[in-house]
Amino acid sequence: MLTSSVVVLLALSAFLPGVVHALPNGAPSGACVRIFPEGHRTDSQPLEDSPFSLNVSSFGGQYAPGETYRLTLSGSGDFRGLLVQARSIADNSPVGSFENISALTRLSSCNRADSAITHSSRVDKTSVELSFTAPPAGTGPFRFQYAVVDTFAVFYAPIMSDIIREAERPTQPPPPCLHNGVIYSDGDTFPAGDGCNTCFCASGTVGCTLAFCPGCRDGQVRLVDGNATSGRVELCYNNTWGTVCDDFWDVEDARVVCRQLGLPYLTPLALDFAEFNEGMGPILLDDLHCDGDEMSLLECPHIGIRNHNCGHHEDAGVICSNDITQCFYNNVTYAEGEGFPDIDGCNNCTCRSGSLRCTEVYCPAPCSEGTFPCDYETFRSCFPNRFRCDGFIDCDSDGSDELNCPPPISTTCVYNNVTYGEDEQFLEGDGCNNCTCRRGNVRCTEYFCPGTCEENEFRCIAGFFRPCAPRCDGREDCFDGSDEENCPTLAPADCYDGQVRLVDGNVTSGRVELCFNQTWGTVCDDDWDSADATVVCRQLGLSSHFPMALSFAHFGPGRGPIHLDDLGCNGNEVSLLECPHIGVGNHNCRHLEDAGVDCLESLISCEDEQVRLVGGGTGAEGRVELCYNNTWGTVCDDFWDVEDARVVCRQLGLPFQFATAHGQARFGQGIGRIHLDDVECSGLEVLLLSCPSNEVGDHNCDHSEDAGVMCSGGGVEDCENGQVRLAGGNDTAGRVELCYDNTWGTVCDA
Question: Is 704 found in the same domain as 642?
Fold first, then answer.
């Protein structure tokens, strides 16, 4: 198939230098091998009127390698034909090939496709055609060379065409690269996605550095509990992984994360409320306000590392994507991941993958007559109509009660025969309530204000809040804490350094209090998270699998000193004092920021006969607790002695030869049931519940008599490397322990 058609017409008459009598005796059949014989003599006879013509000007002086061209030969006169070849400029060798496409054209009779012979009947002078396929790339320039033939005996000297050169091929740009769903141009460098290595694009192929990445570096991000392109966002700081709070978390923040990881980032989803499960460790960032162009999450505006008011139930997540999907609802178009309240005021909706997902949150009854609703997403509350446009915001969430209000009738207020201006504040006559004038209306606070302070009470001095407050009772009743300043030292408490307890809650929850220098104190909620709560719950022998870290004095403000602040537990510490902190007694808090926990004991159960040690400074000491009917309870110290302690330590797989028994709640008072009393072990029993005692639940004790043990000394059975056992439970459940170097040890759950 011809890919190009070129009409070639070159008049030879003006260029023929003479006639060559190359074959005076006639040309034999198959004379193609001697088309252009060497050593011939050239006469000076000119040919003014050439019978054939061939024009190559349409080549434009260049050829495309391998391209096929059509040549048209025109003839007139009595000459027999025209011999044609294309010859290399470099070595004069034939190049290219000819193909017969006309009845009046034939190829050379010696099967050489690199030459062609046309012939004429002397009568029929019709133009004839043949095709020429250009030589391959790299051949270099060539010329067409041809000679007129007369009577197959006389050849005219060969004529050369202009030089035809190989055309320069247009340079194609290198192909791009595809990596993690993102297209990169040749020469681009980009993150590998592991937060450590760098990749580059070279001619359509992605190459990456192969550096080993120990630990993590500041600003590195990763996705956890999802897949390659989605998960909970975790950030590295000071070689520690932490989470990001979802306050103000939006698509621009998600875009920065996805770009930093080298993932698709055009249309990411910003997910909140621990969509990919709750993380552990510190919460490093809160209130992020990325504009979407930052190269690292740490470049975005935020309120400071570890500054937050969140729990891990607010951990942020992302789905990295380049898919552009939208939702159309109630004549409004919503972008992928965008949330909005439903028109019924009851549901929260989110656009996900082009579809709406709505969840009913809360849908109260309509407001009664004479009231109006405050709407915030799906929450509604009702206020009297007199509160609308009175100058005071009652709809705290959206301020809707003070929107679209007419101009006020008056901007002054008359109260107790005194006139006040707009936004002017004043004390009510009793000196206790603070009042404000707005839009002609007066609104006063309603603080409790007793007439006369009792003994050991005084008035707080900060602001307008001046109630009488108990002084030096360990609780900050004044906003400024002045009621607890310059107080006498409290009597020493019967506790040891590092001991913890839960106060003002229940069996598994309460305000966290820590003993230091025989004084109970609280813990500030700055940086307080589930990792810190995990340590507390584990130290108390409660469930540490699903702890909740509670802040802002959830269980009420405590009293006494604030021992710890800015805790940074990783969740694996045995005692709260082992966690990083800024020093005992160093803090910038008040008791309104006391930390609490909920250990959620109900989420796990125990098995009968199981024992554990609670409240000790190490794993080998503590208050003895026994499981019965899936409930933990304590043991009374009546008749509690060293033989009982040895049974407990042996059951737990701990050293028991020099075990000691302790009573009178040496490791803190337990809560809940007291399972055993009057225990009298021989020291040889395998289980505490096998020892002689009163019936389970039959006792005459309270928790001030809770029994404890300290396990020490020898007595641990010999074991072989690699041997495993279950300790502290029963035949089918318990703590996993492994033997190495004739010593039993535990296995970390990380």
Answer: yes
